[in-house]
Amino acid sequence: MTTPVIEARGLHCERDERVLFCRLQLQIYPGDIVQVEGPNGSGKTTLLRILTTVSREFQGELCWRGEDLHRQRLDYLNHLLYLGHLPSVKKALSPRENLQWFSGMGSGHKQLPIARALEEVGLLGFEDVPCYILSAGQLRRVALARLYLTPAQIWVLDEPFTAIDKQGVAALESLLQEHARGGGSVVLTTHQNLGLAGVKRLNLMDFQPPQGYYPYSPDSAGEEPETGP
Amino acid sequence: MNAPPAAIGAAFAAILRRDLTLAYRHRGEIANPLVFFLIVITMVPLGVSPDPQLLATLAPGIIWVVALLSTLLALDGLFRSDFEDGSLEQLLISPQPLYLMVLAKVLAHWLVTGLPLTLMAPLLGVMLSLPAAGYLPLCLSLLLGTASLSLIGAIGAALTVALRKGGLLLSLIIMPLYAPVLIFGAGAVRSAVDGFPFAPQIAILGALLALAAVLAPLASAAALRISIDG
Known about the structure:
The complex is a heterodimer.
Chain A: E1 6-15, E2 18-28, E3 33-37, H1 44-51, E4 59-64, E5 67-68, H2 73-78, E6 80-83, H3 95-105, H4 114-120, H5 136-144, H6 146-149, E7 154-158, H7 166-181, E8 185-189, E9 199-203
Parallel strand pairs in A: 3-8, 3-9, 6-7, 7-8
Antiparallel strand pairs in A: 1-2, 1-4, 4-5
Chain B: H1 5-25, H2 27-47, H3 52-75, H4 77-84, H5 87-92, H6 98-112, H7 114-127, H8 135-160, H9 167-193, H10 199-229
């Protein structure tokens, strides 16, 4: 049996005296596409931020190829690409300059020239215009162009389909599938129904604390979230 | 597995180039501290007294205090825009040492604030009738001092970046740390004007800069991780 690339055991996270999820188990194997589900405010972004090592406010074990992820952090980050829910695109720079910055900071070689990646996401002719004239969907596409440039194996995508049109969604889905087929792994959050076969679903509502479970402050009972249906 | 040195250099250059390009595209914001510097120094003879002898006594201190306040003006924006558009998260999870990434950002910040301030200072010295002996120590002390100010200020900027109104807090955190730089910077110019050697103060400023260059990016990097985690 292969070891999972990322494994979370008994992950427990709290924000503002509210338990977002507890005893969360997650195994991501090469070739997996994992869709994290849950209503707004259920901690999807928080989970992704924990998986990308941006946030360390959690309890439990997180492993990268069977070893503690935070000890192997640099090796892990070399294999990671994270697209946050903010596009991380500077509006005063052109799409090409933005992507040059991203590829400059990452390690490893580029898969495609930047112009080709921008063509793939439908921004042909917009390579050298400042990003502030682009629409919200086009800004998101600039960020998505990184997926064509990165050699990273693990993709963590927070709402990648926001503001993307139908054609773009289809192109992105096929890109994710291709990445998974090549042995990569994808973790993403989205409220859309993915038209992909073999998507694993992780519903955060399955990891809610049991009723009446108040780990640290028993007197904050009134502020507890309702548990899911 | 460590990133190869070439990749680290490339990342350093990529950040430097991006921040300088951004500064160039937002020229108005960059000019802001410089214009502030110019205006305050121009107002001093009007407000205090046009008497050259009095101005010459005040000049070292005033130029240094205003230069310090000008760098403080630009400081809040050091990590703010990167925080707001999510690039700061990308910086934190890039497989490069965060120390060098912060150093690159601070260097870019100094190149567009501290360096122009230093270059403008002799001109403003003339307006305040600074004696001829004061120009060399003024430039040297500002050159070393503003670099330290940018490095130290980055710690405060990193600590307050996640706060919605961090400006006031930033000044309160940073001001005490700025005091030694101010004392030795203005002291160097005053010594030279009074006819004493100014090398000791410059040497201390150099030592402060060396210390800040080694320690401040470490502190800023740690502060950024805390701010982002919140």
